């Protein structure tokens, strides 16, 4: 049988973490170590292992990911059939999204990790790695964009969120549900994700620093006037409900819109930011009229990454509006 060739790129994360001299667990294992711990992988694919970073998920940067995307593109266009990126679960919802935006190779790319370290009872890393390789070896997956596989579930990069700090079932796609599962080693795909964002192919060589500010009950946005002086180039306002902020914060948002792109998101984990329903001060209609850009169905974290990527390519305000506009249905007239 001709086995597919799958690249395993390890960036670190709990899946690689064992006891450290400093106490607690820290990234120690290499991609080769991970492969050795799952002998069944040999029946699924021929593997090439690269330990690219050995970092906790929270310390990865956009530049690190651009570097990983380059590596994936290079390997996937020169013979590898699919790739698995192994990393910390803290940022899988972010990194999978960024890799999805930067990918252009048309081959399966899967991001996986573990909620429990390799020395913990019931460590989930080996099972997730095995499932991830099975998914990366399945050609149909190339049509799904980058996917996340943990707990035998397949999620689209565009929708997946980490929703628990400890459970092995931590990953969910609250707006849509998972795309499929892996059972008895078989990849079962139930749904295909909507692909409404265009990939980013331009170089990421412009400065971009996007801040996310949550405006909850009683918040008046006192921080907002300081943002531009601090060097921020864009802001994501995480409001409440369908994209609402306290009336007391509206003036500050109006002024901020004159200084940088302001994306309007919601702290609610699923559902789109509205555009044409509420008319009170601080409502989505009020903020959009003042120049805020609604984030559609994107989570605040993914909206922040999209704005960062767009600004990094030197996108104009119009281009930013067009890109975010793709996430929102056309208004009824
Ligand atoms: N808790 C994290 C993990 O699951 C740590 C990290 O993101 O590196 O890997």
Report what the structure shows:
This protein folds into two domains: 185 residues, L-asparaginase, N-terminal domain (Rossmann fold, 3-Layer(aba) Sandwich), CATH 3.40.50.1170; 116 residues, 3-Layer(aba) Sandwich (Rossmann fold), CATH 3.40.50.40. The chain is 24% helix and 21% strand. The chain has eight helices and 16 strands. It has an eight-stranded mixed beta sheet with strand order 4-1-5-6-7-8-11-12. Helix 2 crosses helix 3 and helix 3 runs parallel beside helix 7. It binds aspartic acid. The site of aspartic acid has 10 residues, from loops.
Q: What order do the helices and strands come in, and which of them pair?
A:
Layout: E1 5-12, E2 17-19, E3 25-27, H1 31-36, E4 46-55, H2 62-76, E5 82-86, H3 92-102, E6 109-112, H4 125-136, E7 147-150, E8 153-156, E9 161-162, E10 171-172, E11 180-183, E12 186-189, E13 210-214, E14 234-239, H5 250-257, E15 262-266, H6 284-289, E16 293-294, H7 300-312, H8 317-325
Parallel strand pairs: 1-4, 1-5, 5-6, 6-7, 13-14, 14-15, 15-16
Antiparallel strand pairs: 2-3, 7-8, 8-11, 9-10, 11-12
The structure holds aspartic acid.
Write down the secondary-structure element order: EEEHEHEHEHEEEEEEEEHEHEHH
Count of helical stretches:
8
Strand order of the largest sheet: 4-1-5-6-7-8-11-12
* First-residue to last-residue Cα separation: 58 Å
- The stretches of 5 or more residues where confidence is low (pLDDT under 50) are none
Strand content: 15-25%
Structure ligands: aspartic acid
CATH A-level architecture of the largest domain: 3-Layer(aba) Sandwich
Assign the structural class, choosing from mainly alpha, mainly beta, alpha/beta, alpha+beta, or little secondary structure: alpha/beta
Number of strands: 16
Q: How many separate structural domains?
A: 2
- For CATH, the homologous superfamily of the largest domain is named as L-asparaginase, N-terminal domain
Reading off the top of the CATH hierarchy, the class of the largest domain is best stated as Alpha Beta
* Shape by Cα distribution: elongated
Question: In CATH terms, what is the fold-level topology of the largest domain?
Answer: Rossmann fold
The main β sheet shows up as: 8 strands, mixed
């Amino acid at each position: 049988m001709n086995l597919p060739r799958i690249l395993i790129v390890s960036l670190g994360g709990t899946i690689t973490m064992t006891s450290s001299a400093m106490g607690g667990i820290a990234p120690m294992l290499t991609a080769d170590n991970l492969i050795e711990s799952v002998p069944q992988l040999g029946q699924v694919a021929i593997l090439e292992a690269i330990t690219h970073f050995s970092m906790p998920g929270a310390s990865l940067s956009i530049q690190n990911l651009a570097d990983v995307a380059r590596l994936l593109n290079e390997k996937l266009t020169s013979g590898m059939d699919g790739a698995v990126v192994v990393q910390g679960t803290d940022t899988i919802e972010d990194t999978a999204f960024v890799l999805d935006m930067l990918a252009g190779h048309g081959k399966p790319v899967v991001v996986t990790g573990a909620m429990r370290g390799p020395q913990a009872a019931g460590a989930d890393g080996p099972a997730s790695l095995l499932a991830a390789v099975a998914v990366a070896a399945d050609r149909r997956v190339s049509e799904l964009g980058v996917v996340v596989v943990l707990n035998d579930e397949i999620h689209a990069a565009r929708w997946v969120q980490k929703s628990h700090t400890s459970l092995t079932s931590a990953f969910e796609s609250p707006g849509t549900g998972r795309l499929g599962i892996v059972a008895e080693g078989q990849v079962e795909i139930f749904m295909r994700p909507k692909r409404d964002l265009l990939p980013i192919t331009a170089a990421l060589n412009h400065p971009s620093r996007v801040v996310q500010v949550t405006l909850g009950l009683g918040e008046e946005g006192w921080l907002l006037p300081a943002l531009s002086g601090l060097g921020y180039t864009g802001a994501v306002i995480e409001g409440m409900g369908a994209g609402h902020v306290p009336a007391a914060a509206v003036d500050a948002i109006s002024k901020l819109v004159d200084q940088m792109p302001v994306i309007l998101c919601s702290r609610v984990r699923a559902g789109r930011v509205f555009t044409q329903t509420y008319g009170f001060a601080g409502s989505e209609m009020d903020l959009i009229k003042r120049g805020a850009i609604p984030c559609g169905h994107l989570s605040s974290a993914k909206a922040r990454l999209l704005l960062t990527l767009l600004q990094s390519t030197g996108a104009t305000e119009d281009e930013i509006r067009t890109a975010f506009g793709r996430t929102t249905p056309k208004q009824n007239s």
